[in-house]
Amino acid sequence: MKKQTYAKRICAALLSLLVLAGIGGTAFVAKAASANETAIYNFLKSEMGLNTAAACGVLANIYNESGFDPHCYGDGGTSYGICQWHAERFSRLRNYCSNYGYDYTTLNGQLHYLDYELRTSYPSVYSKLHNVSNDAEGAYDAAYYWCYYYEVPYGYNTGVSDRRGSLAAYTYWPVYSAKAEVPVTTQPSNGGTTTPINPDTSFNGVPGTGSATTLFARFIQMLRTIIGALQYMLT
Question: For the whole model, what pTM was predicted?
Fold first, then answer.
């Protein structure tokens, strides 16, 4: 009887913890998404040399494609990553990262492939990004052109490109044009070059410990497993 009583108390405590974690989970994941957004913006500016308007245009598209989540799958598992690389483009992402020492599941690997793909397969988009005016109109133009010629999502020619342009001009541009440049934190990578610290390979500043969202998901899964085992003991 004592064992069952202890097990019930432990199970109740864990259930309470699971509820509290669920309440805080949305804010936790949102914080991780915000960290990814910052890392992407810094990469676009420092590594790719885009102005603020062009970077805002890219952010508006990535937000719509994946919510800044590098682990996002779409189209029944045939599209993946922050830009939802589809089918053959997904395969090219994996091959590039394998050949150049990156992990295709991380933000860092995907950003380097993004830069490579633009330079080699979408030179007109790359050129457009480097030539838009650094103002709200430039942010709109960058987002529209990116959507229409690089992402090409469903409805790209029936309003989607325009909506993403408006998101860049009226949401992202006011935020990033008004604040000071965010300093880029770097770490050595790939033969001494520097890249932004990737939220997917570091947590609380410790490289290699996994993303915040991944750790949270593992924690929740662990709680559910323990609760399941305790409930089995009580039956």
Answer: 0.67
